Every structure is written in structure tokens, then in C-alpha cells.
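Q: Sequence in, structure out?
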Amino acid sequence: MVRNPAPTPPPPPPAAPMDPDLTTYYFALITKGPNFEAYDKEDRTKIQSLHMRNMERMASLGKLLVAGPFSDNGDWRGIFIFKCASLEEARALAATDPAVATGRFKIEVHPWMTEKGALRDPEFAAKPAAKP
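A: Exactly. Output:
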């Protein structure tokens, strides 16, 4: 018996043009990974040091704009905000994090839009870039 193949669904409608006053960044949520508790204090210290050095590297490349931990000691550990050409680039950068590679952290990256120039805080002057 010959069955008729299912009809091909129509393509999705084209995306609406992006508002010219908005820009896309990439928001990364860092959470506890499957190996969060698997390391002794010495190894956790080493992993954290490598994690911090990797953040400095990404910032020196101009890719990591904002990073910081959550202070409530919950499953959510911190965030990154990347300025990248694509979601794939942001995910590739996130995967370079040693804490992610060891499974101590997991990281989920999403495109995030905000008004151009919105990443600022007038209360604090920008720090000069760290020298490599």
C-alpha cells in the first residue's frame, strides 16, 4: 500500500525588520552544572581562577561586555553579556569557559535586544581597559 507523504508545511513568515533603535547582544545564564559539587576546594579554586582569566580574555577581545555572579548562592551562578556577530559565535565563546568544560557550570545563551546605548550606568565611570 502506497501512502501519500505528509504535505510540506509552509515556510515561516519573514521576520519583521529590526527596529533601527535596537541592537542585539547575547545574554548567557550561568547555572550549576552536573559536576558542581564534584571538586575539592583546591580544584574549585583552580577552576575559578581559569574561569576569571577566560572572562578577562573575552573582555580583552571586546566580546564580553558585562559579567557577574548572583549573590544569593542559588542554582543561578551568574551572567555574561556578549557582543558578537552571531548566536553561534556567542555560544562558541561560552563553551571556552573552563568551568563549563569541567561541568562545574552550565551556560545557556540567548539573543537579547535592547536600545542602542542602553548598556551604561551614569553612576559609575567606565574603567580603563586592562592591559594584557
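Strands lie at 22-32, 64-69, 76-82, 105-115.
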